[in-house]
Amino acid sequence: MTTLLPSEQTDAASRQIVRVYEQSVVRWLLYCLPLIFFIVWVISAIYGRTFLFFLPARPAAEFFRSRLGLAAAAATSMCPVIWFLALRLTPRSRTVESYSAVVLTAVLVSLSGVFLATPQVQTVICNLVLLRSPHLDFARNIAWTKLLLLQVPQTERTLRIGLVGSSQINLAVDEKRLSEQVQGSDVRKFCLPGMVPLQYAGLIEDLERQKLDVIVCWLSEFDFFRETGLPVDRLRWCGTRKSNIRFARLLGPKLCWENRAGFADLTSAAGSTCWRDREILQMLIFRFWWHSDPRFVIATPEELKVGARLADREQGLQNLRENVMRTPLLEANFDAFRMFASSCIAAGSTLIVVQGECEPDAMRVYDPSFRDETHSRLRQMSGELQFVYSDAKSRVDLSSSDWADSLHLNSDGRQKFTLWLSDEIAHLVSE
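RE: above sequence
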């Protein structure tokens, strides 16, 4: 039995006082509901586009035509109604109340996840993120990639080329020029900063829906000899039940146990849209009220580690020296790309794997046997799976002057590589 101080009221009395006050507030809100509906409708109709997309306000006389204003008014008007129903349905029993709160929370989280997962809502959220994030931000890259994956092709008349990989291939190809050089093809970049081989396996179903005729990847020892643990931050946004099972099979029992915390995170992402889209929702919430200024973007240590941002020469060399190594995930990385390549071939796509590289001086800071092993494995894999593998001897030669930093090509290198790639694709397509 709880001991009360002199003159202190019981918990039940306190709850009753709060309940009476809430009922009074809700009653007045319900009386004012028509006025609330009208005011929210007008304000949302006029300023809704400004609030969401930084567009000019609509003329006040056209508020009745705004579906956005009507939706905002309806949603706002439902709040007092839900509050009223919650008060009426809330049980007086404390035990029952505790259980009902848990059930209600679970239901609301599940319903919000279903709502956020719809293509229309995902499209709006991703565009809101694009308006509020710096160009090289990881959340922005996720939002842009999700938008591309939501655009399922409706026609098969145009040759569709997909560039899949990290910021290295993203900055190595001029997609506009590639499109012009190859029959006016539709070129899409499904690229993420620091994209790891396990992500290729995680995007199999999404890329299959794109119906790509040609898929181009840029891979080197920098991709395979790097991850020391499950890269949860890179995998969460595309986490599904199928992809998690795939990751578990690739890593095997021992590595799964060592990375159990990461798998718990990915399992949560597979079951909750809010958790899966954590990065873009955080960006949306904390940058909602202002435009971001990309001039003041500061790269995080993690982004510099995986080559997600341009870095100065010394920083790039230091990152390569510290991070390119033989790791426990090496076999899982090669097996993940093998799985991805097999799915591409099975879907009827022409897969082109380019032996990537870093700036010549940068490749001297790590063990050269890593490059030889990567080359040997990819060449053997290409023979077994029948995809096109272009090593350093068969593709365009890149010199020191073609690099913007240790990992990314500059404008001259981009044009040189794009011209070679367009000739390679045109030759394959014409056969």
